[in-house]
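1st attempt posting a full record on here, be nice pls
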Amino acid sequence: MNRAMSCAVLALLLLAAPASAQHAHEHDHPPGPHGGRVEDAGAWHAELVTRAETVSVYLSDGDGKPLPAEGFKAVAILKSGAKAARVLLSPEGNRLAGTAEASLGERPSGAVRITGPGGVTASARFD
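the predicted structure (as tokens):
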């Protein structure tokens, strides 16, 4: 399967997932400590922060305690306006970080698929 098709399939899978599978809790989270939006991602919480082309995801446990980024990886499919971007995220300090090809603004919609150190995966959806 070519790269474009792989990206399209991944985007559809992440964005079409039912809300009940994305949200273990039926509540809104307040803004995270880095000013981003926080959503549930399986046993973790993911805080999405975007500034221009930079995408950062800060992870915490179910109680909100920060988790080290080492050993995690992720892919974000984010949409700003009519364009979608696929951004690979890797550990950088205390966050997962990557760079989009174009500015995403401060509030793109989409999803982040996170893979933990043991291979466990979870997704967070940002509307």
